[in-house]
Specification:
The chain has helices spanning 3-9, 16-21, 26-30, 49-57, 63-69, 118-128, 131-143, 149-152, 159-167, 175-183, 221-236, 246-251, 253-265, and strands at residues 13-15, 41-43, 60-61, 82-85, 98-101, 191-197, 200-206, 210-215, 240-245. The protein is an alpha/beta fold. It starts with a helix and ends in a 6-residue tail after the last helix. The radius of gyration is 24 Å and the shape is elongated. 33% of the residues are buried. The protein contains 13 helices and 9 strands. Helix 7 (131-143) packs across helix 10. It has 3 domains: 3-47; 60-167, no CATH class; 175-265, VSR Endonuclease (Endonuclease, Chain A).
Length: 271
C-alpha cells in the first residue's frame, strides 16, 4: 500500500511517527507529496479541513463539534466555531477561532487520534451546554448505542454530567422530544413517551386521552399524510391531538405550554 492510501485509510491526517511505525521510511513519506499541517503531521490534500485544523493547533475535536460528527442530535447555536479539547497543562495551543476545552478528559487521549471518544464528548457537552441541550445529546448517544448509562456511571463524573446522566434515557425519538419531556415534568398529569395507540406510536400521551405529537424535519410528504390519517383516527376514538413542530418547541414554547395547560384545565386528558 502506498503512503497516501495508508493516510487516507487512517482518517486523512496522521502523525509521521505512526507512518514510521507502519513501516514507511522518511524518504517514502517525503516523496508522497503530502501536506504538512504541523511538524510531525501529514495530510492528504482532500483531508477533512477540521481534522487538518485540529492537527495544526495540537487539539482534538470534542464537545458539540464532535457530537455532530458522530451524528448526535444537537442545537447549532454556536455559529461556525469549532469546539476542541486541549491538554490541561499545555501552553502550545493556538486556536483563536475555536472554543477550547481545557478540562481533564474522562478517558486519556492517546497520541494520534484527532477526535475525542464519545465518553469525553458527553462529559464536556454536559459542562458546556445548557441542561436541555446537553441532555438531548446524551439521549441521542444512548439511543444510537454509542454510549450507555451503565458505562457512564462508572466514571468519576463532575456534577453537571451527573445531573444529565440522572435524566438521560434511550427511549425518546429525538432531541426535540427530550426538550419537551423535561419541560412537561411539572404538569399535574402523567406524561408517557412513545406510546402505541391504534397501531401507531405517538410521541407523548398525557394522562389518558391527550396526545402530543412533535414534528421534526422528516414529517413531510407521505409521512405527513400518514400522520394526518392517524390524527383523524385518534380523534374518532376520543383522543385530543396537539401537533407542534421544531419552531414551536425551540422558539414558541410558552404558546405550546399554554395549549397543553388549557387542554388539561378542560379535562381533555381524562377518559
Amino acid at each position: 500500500m502506498d503512503v497516501r492510501e495508508w493516510v487516507r485509510r487512517h482518517g486523512g491526517v496522521v502523525r509521521t511517527a505512526d507512518l514510521r511505525d507502519a513501516g514507511y521510511s522518511r524518504h517514502r513519506i517525503g516523496a508522497a507529496g503530502l501536506e504538512r499541517p504541523r511538524r510531525g503531521w501529514v495530510a492528504v490534500p482532500e483531508a477533512d479541513p477540521l481534522l487538518r485544523s485540529a492537527a495544526r493547533a495540537g487539539v482534538v475535536l470534542t464537545c458539540v463539534t464532535q457530537a455532530r460528527r458522530l451524528g448526535l442530535w444537537s442545537v447549532n447555536d454556536d455559529g461556525s466555531r469549532a469546539h476542541v479539547g486541549a491538554p490541561a497543562a499545555s501552553g502550545s495551543v493556538s486556536a483563536p477561532h475555536a472554543r477550547v476545552h481545557w478540562s481533564t478528559p474522562l478517558i486519556a487521549r492517546i497520541p494520534g487520534p484527532l477526535e475525542d471518544p464519545v465518553e469525553n464528548v458527553l462529559a464536556i457537552v454536559a459542562e458546556c451546554r445548557p441542561f436541555e441541550q446537553a441532555l438531548a445529546v446524551w439521549d441521542s448517544a444512548f439511543r444510537q448505542g454509542l454510549a450507555s448509562g451503565e458505562v457512564m456511571r462508572r466514571f468519576d463524573l463532575r456534577p453537571a454530567a451527573r445531573r444529565v446522566l440522572a435524566d438521560a434515557c434511550a427511549h425518546l425519538d429525538s432531541g426535540l422530544e427530550t426538550f419537551v419531556f423535561v419541560r412537561l415534568r411539572w404538569i399535574p398529569a402523567a406524561v408517557h413517551p412513545q406510546v402505541h395507540l391504534l397501531g401507531h406510536r405517538v410521541d407523548f400521551l398525557i394522562g389518558e386521552r391527550l396526545v402530543l405529537q412533535i414534528d421534526g424535519g422528516h414529517h413531510v410528504g407521505a409521512q405527513r399524510d400518514a400522520d394526518n390519517t392517524h390524527d383523524a383516527l385518534l380523534t374518532l376514538h376520543g383522543y385530543t391531538v396537539i401537533r407542534v413542530g421544531y419552531a414551536d418547541v425551540m422558539h414558541r414554547w410558552p404558546e405550546v405550554q399554554d395549549r397543553i395547560l388549557r387542554a388539561l384545565a378542560q379535562g381533555l386528558h381524562l377518559s
